[in-house]
Design goal:
heterodimer; A: 353 residues; alpha+beta; Rossmann fold; OB fold (Dihydrolipoamide Acetyltransferase, E2P); 2 domains; six-stranded mixed β-sheet; five-stranded antiparallel β-sheet; 24% helix; B: 262 residues; mainly alpha; MetI-like fold; 0% strand
């Protein structure tokens, strides 16, 4: 086990810069996710760490070792692929034994370690089967066992859950978290699923356009996004325009929000991000609440989504638990929206994203 | 593949076509047992003497040996070269890989006679005429397309990350290829190798330009015997060839289930 650090990593294909100057460090035993839309460069970073791609510039260190130019087989890394990438012509046992055999293990110790790895992913007794005889979830567990069996110093996950259906994905998420906590292996996890990234990681790096926009604890990413891209990418935010006036953000038509923190100069244009789930819907007015009318209502089981038109014309989408009294609000009815000051995210207008 | 059952008229037409195509084979097999010294249908009497005659004729034996040596060595060489080429063309972004592929596949399209003439002029020029090695090289040229085609098809059906997984797990490039990629493309390679072998075994147009009298191969010998007049000896050797081919195909099918790749 060791820490992983990337220093000024750049990957260029011709003139296109896929990764721009990425620098970060993952501490020993830490779980870090790279989160972003497809094509943001997250998988490219993972493949460079694995040695499957060579960075154009920069340095990759595993512990004290500079691995930038080392081939993948010399890096002692575990990698779990999106497609599982099991060896179809080998049994589950041989799949898991592959990495150990390359390290010269054999006989009884090999057998014990393979079985221990299979035990860890709760596939004890499946050794004699072939991958094609297993379900998708089981195959992914084999691929995890295969990655951890040789005790890698770094564990990499490339969207490991995105080929599974929603229910199985939730189960595997818990399994993965449990596994990582038991092993405390330094982990880099790449995904486009924010719920996955936020719930699994010690820290999350949000990527866009080859740049890591923000790398921080999940709570920070969620509540204190560094820029407009992160604010709009995470959660289901409403985006409103406003102007800083007397310590508030004035939205127009007399509506104003008073955030907990306001770092912008008086009179400047600002963008306000309000998460759907952070807005309370009230039937009666309350100091600081925004007045509006319900324009649309959509029922989706546990939640009801209300589209509320504010006095100055802008629309806000609000999520209300179905059990709430306000979930029955019908289009045309007046409502008041209360937002806690700490949930009001204010960023400068037109900031680069 | 499809669940659709063919309709009766289509089945009948298909059977007729297959029968029509197989009649010559049947004729050859039947006549090889005939006691007469000319080809006739139905065969007059039953005898194995033509088989005995052919198999005891040193000219035939040498031709068979030449053909086998030529086919085996050119198939093995084609396998080594074709697989390496396919791997390089498929995995690495070689500049002009499309052009290289087209060039290597060209012997499938260029008439064999043209290749034969061209090879003859070339080896005469460089002074290698009459060398058995030249014959092997020529056969590699005409058999490599079959290997290349099946290897490329097999590789493209493979998940690239499977070999990457092996690399990350500690296998160097060659080990990953040997333990993971090669076993996975083996059925396709067997199919390609069979085509290559058969192509080399039966080739006349290229061989006839390059083979010296001592290097006569079986198809050349059959070809020239037929010029002298067909006798059941030719039919007997042809029957042996057919039987040998069927046996090899059956064994290969059992070994790899390669029919999916043809």
């Amino acid at each position: 086990m060791s820490n992983l650090s990337l220093r000024n990593i750049v990957k260029r294909y011709g003139k296109t810069e896929v990764v721009r100057n990425a620098s970060f460090q993952i501490a020993e035993g830490e779980f870090v996710s790279l989160l972003g839309p497809s094509g943001c460069g997250k998988t490219t970073i993972l493949r460079m760490v694995a040695g499957l791609l060579e960075p154009t510039e920069g340095q990759i260190m595993i512990g004290e070792r500079d691995v930038t130019r080392l081939p993948p087989n010399k890096r002692n890394i575990g990698l779990v692929f999106q497609s599982y990438a099991l060896f179809p012509h080998m049994t589950v046992f041989e799949n898991v034994a592959f990495g150990l055999r390359r390290k010269g293990e054999s006989g009884k110790p090999l057998e014990e370690r393979v079985n221990a790895a299979l035990e860890m992913v709760r596939l004890g007794g499946y050794g004699a089967r072939f991958p094609r005889q297993l379900s998708g979830g089981q195959q992914q567990r084999v691929s995890m066992a295969r990655a951890i069996a040789p005790r890698p110093s770094i564990l990499l996950f490339d969207e490991p859950l995105s080929n599974l259906d929603a229910k199985l994905r939730d189960e595997m998420q818990i399994e993965l978290k449990r596994l990582q906590q038991e092993l405390r292996i330094t982990t880099l996890f790449v995904t486009h699923d924010q719920a996955e990234a936020l719930s699994l990681s010690d820290r999350v790096g949000v990527m866009h356009g080859g740049v890591i926009q923000q790398l921080d604890r999940p709570e920070e990413i969620y509540h204190r996004p560094a820029n407009a891209f992160v604010a709009s990418f995470i959660g289901k935010p409403n985006r409103l325009q406003g102007r800083i006036e007397a310590g508030t953000v004035a939205l127009g038509a007399g509506l104003a929000l008073r955030p907990e923190r306001l770092d912008l100069p008086e009179g400047s244009e600002a963008e306000v991000f309000l998460r759907q789930e952070a807005i309370r819907v009230l039937r009666t007015p309350e100091p600081g609440a925004l007045a509006g009318t319900v324009a649309l209502r959509a029922f989706s089981g546990p939640q009801v989504q209300l589209v509320v038109r504010l006095a100055h014309g802008a629309e806000i989408v609000v999520e209300v638990p179905s059990a709430e009294d306000t979930a029955s609000l019908a289009p045309g009815e007046p409502v008041h929206l209360a937002i806690r000051p700490r949930d009001i995210i204010v960023l400068p207008q037109g900031a680069a994203s | 593949m499809s669940d659709m059952k063919p309709t009766l008229p289509i089945s009948i037409v298909a059977l007729l076509v297959v029968a029509f195509l197989q009649v010559p084979v049947l004729v050859v097999v039947l006549t090889s047992f005939s006691e007469t010294s000319y080809l006739t249908i139905p065969p007059q009497g039953w005898t194995l003497k033509w088989f005995a005659e052919v198999l005891s004729d040193p000219v035939y034996i040498r031709a068979i040996r030449n053909s086998l040596i030529l086919a085996v060595s050119s198939t093995l060489l084609s396998l080594a070269l074709g697989v390496a080429a396919a791997y390089a063309l498929f995995r690495k972004a070689i500049p002009g890989s499309e052009a290289i592929t087209a060039l290597l596949m060209a012997p499938l399209i260029v008439p064999s006679v043209v290749i034969g003439v061209a090879m003859l002029q070339y080896v005469t020029l460089v002074g290698l005429r009459g060398s058995f090695l030249v014959l092997i090289v020529a056969h590699v040229v005409i058999t490599v397309p079959y290997i290349l085609r099946s290897a490329l098809a097999s590789l493209s059906g493979l998940d690239v990350s499977v070999e990457e997984a092996a690399r990350v797990l500690g296998a160097d490039g060659f080990t990953a290829f040997r333990l993971v990629t090669l076993p996975l493309i083996k059925p396709g390679l067997v199919a390609g190798a069979l085509f290559a072998f058969v192509t080399s075994m039966e080739n006349v147009p290229v061989t006839i330009f390059l083979a010296s009298a001592r290097q006569t191969t079986l198809p050349i010998l059959i070809f020239s015997s037929v010029e002298m007049g067909v006798n059941p000896g030719v039919a007997a050797i042809s029957t042996l060839l057919i039987v040998a081919t069927v046996i090899v195909l059956l064994l290969a099918e059992r070994w790899t289930g390669f029919h999916k790749f043809v």
